[in-house]
Amino acid sequence: MGSLGVWKRWSSKKILASRQEWIQRDNEPIWWWQEPIQELTVLIQGERQTENPLEYSTSLKSMHLWSTANAEALNVAGREVEAWDWHRKANGYWFAALKIHLAGNWGWSNQSDWQPLLRLLLLGHMEEAKAMVQAAQGLDETHVYHDFWTVRTREKFLAHRFAFHLIYALLDQPFNGDQDNEEPLGVFAPLVALIRELDADQLIEPILHVLDWHTHETDVKHRGQYAEFSYGKFAAWPIEILALLRVREFLGLINPELDHPLMALPLSKLQPIVPLYRDEWTQGALAGAAKLLPQRPAEFWQI
C-alpha cells in the first residue's frame, strides 16, 4: 500500500472515532417512539377513519426512523444483538411503507430514503429487493420512476445509485438510472464493474477506498451539501459494502478479507439471514392500505 493509502487509513480511523463519539453522545437509544405507534393503532383498530393510505405509511416511516436510531446507538455501544434486532424491525417498517407508496404510484418524498435499500440487501432479502424493482418498473417513468429510482442531479447520494446497480445485478439486467445524472458514480465506479468478479482480491482496494470515503461522508454538511450519512445515520455501519458482500454471496462468489476500521465494528460482518420482520403494525397497516388501494392484487400486500 502506498503512502497515500496509509494516510487515508489513518485519517479514516481518526474521523471514525470522532463520529462514534458524536453518535454515542447524541444518539442514545430512543425509546420514545410511542406517538407513531399510537397513531397507527388508532387507524388499524378503526377508532379513526381515513381515506388516505399515506397515513399508514407515514406512521410506519416514523417507526422506521426511531428503530434505526435505536440500532445505531446500540451498535456503537457494542450491544450488537440488540442493534441487529432493531435494524430488523426498522427494515420491516420501511419495507411495508414502501409497498404502500408503490401501490399508489407515489414517489419517495425524501431522497435520503435510499439507505434502507442497502439494508434490505445486506439482511439477505434478495427476492423482496427484486420484487420492489420490478414493481417500480411499471410506474410512470416520467414522474415516479425517475424520482424514486434515480437521483436528481443537484444531489450526490452515490451509494443510492450503487444500491440499484446491485439489485439489477441480481436481476441480471443493466441499470440505466445513471443516464440522466450529471455526476459519475465516483468512488463506486470500480466496484460496479467488479460486482461479479471471480477473483475476490481484485475488490480489496476499491472496497477500501469506499470505506475511507464512507468515514468522510458523515458530516452534517460536506462541500456545501448534505453528506451521504449525515446526522449519524448509518455513519458507523458500512451498509454499502455489506450489501455488496451479501449480493456476491448470493451469487455464489467468494468475498475478500478486509482490514479497515469500519469493518472492525460490531455489526460490520454478515449476519445469518432471517425472515423479513413483520408484526401487528406492519400487517395492520398493509391491510388498511389494501382496502383503500384495491387496484393491487392480494398477493402484492403479503410479506
Folded structure, characterized:
The protein is 55% helix and 1% strand. Helix 6 packs across helix 8 and helix 8 packs parallel to helix 11 (239-250). The protein has 12 helices and 2 strands. The protein has helices at residues 3-26, 34-44, 54-76, 80-103, 115-122, 126-136, 141-149, 158-171, 189-193, 204-216, 239-250, 280-292, and strands at residues 221-222, 225-226. The protein has 303 residues and is mostly helical. It has a two-stranded antiparallel sheet. A hairpin with a 2-residue loop joins strand 1 and strand 2 (225-226). The chain is globular and about 55 Å long.
Number of strands: 2
Which geometry do the CA atoms define? globular
Strand content: under 5%
Sequence stretches where pLDDT stays below 50 over 5 or more residues = 140-155
| Termini separation | 46 Å
Question: Helical proportion?
Answer: 55-70%
Could you provide a short overview of the structure?
The chain has 303 residues and is mostly helical. 55% of the residues lie in helices and 1% in strands.
Key features of this structure:
303 residues, globular, two-stranded antiparallel ribbon, mainly alpha
Q: What are the SSEs and their pairings?
A:
Blueprint lengths: L2 H24 L7 H11 L9 H23 L3 H24 L11 H8 L3 H11 L4 H9 L8 H14 L17 H5 L10 H13 L4 E2 L2 E2 L12 H12 L29 H13 L11
Helix pairs in contact: 1-10, 2-3, 2-12, 3-4, 3-12, 4-12, 5-8, 5-11, 6-8, 8-11
